[in-house]
# Entry
Amino acid sequence: SIQVLTNGITWLRYTDGSAVRASTHLSDLSLTLDVYSDKDNLPSGKIQSVYLDSREQEWILTDNGLYLLKDNLLCSIITGGSPSDGPVAFRSVAELGDSLIFGSDNGKIYTYSLSRKTISTEQLETSASIISIRSGAGKMLYITDKDGLFMYHPGERTYRHFTLNRLQERKDKTIESASITNNHLLWITHPDPGVTLFDMQRLEFREFIGKDEEGRPLCSETGFFAIEDPNNILWIHPKGGGLSYYDPQRKTLIPFNTTDRPVKWKSNDRCFSAFSDKQGNLWMSTQLNRLNRVTFIPDKFHFHLPAPEDPDLPENEIRAVYTDKKGR
# Structure
């Protein structure tokens, strides 16, 4: 995968846990490539992710240790465990005020103070791994891979556990990823097609699975993505296929395509990607119709004939145009 940080550094992460850090020098635009792995530069561990904090310090999360990269110097913050204790894995990170919060295996949370440079730990009542940390609606969410999610209330300093046992259509309730959109909506993906919505305000789960013309789940290799466009439309592409827009009134996904068919997505059609530009146009790359542009802004130009009964009348000769304060 490719991860571009806001400081201009690009990380190329490989499936074997190694990574290449690419940096460009501003003076001569020369490119520097540095390899990081358990054989090069890293004492141990396979890289899980890289994070840039508000102080522009790069953090390297591995499956056996946590490292800080600052001014091209690598520091070990938490080294890997001994063979008897097992590895100390870091799966996720989020910044909250002066602190960095790291999620680990077995429900363990590490909090690092940026100012004091101290570490504290906390234990959730689970043996699952914390794969994502999100915030919204004044709360913190700790999403695990196999035990749902935990919601932390800072004011009350309490945790509430939400399991996925009530999801009827979800056979495999393992969580692969989670992301938050406007209105405090958490979108969760699983190994199976579709997406699960958790409303952080209503504390409700909803399941969405795209269906083809035969009512079967869409099972293309396309993944989940969400787009919030300038028209305040939330576009959701569930894992497996079925680009839709979210209806906040009915709290459901409405399948969308440029076709007039009653079934918007067939088994032989898919949306590979979508993009919303600054004007609010939706660009769709689909299998059957190739590249499509959908415009939601009405045409601002209209023809007006003062005397429509005869276009050749002198009244229709416009010599000047004036716009008043009301935009008329």
Remarks:
- The radius of gyration is 26 Å.
- The first strand starts at residue 2 and ends at 4.
- The chain has a mean pLDDT of 89.
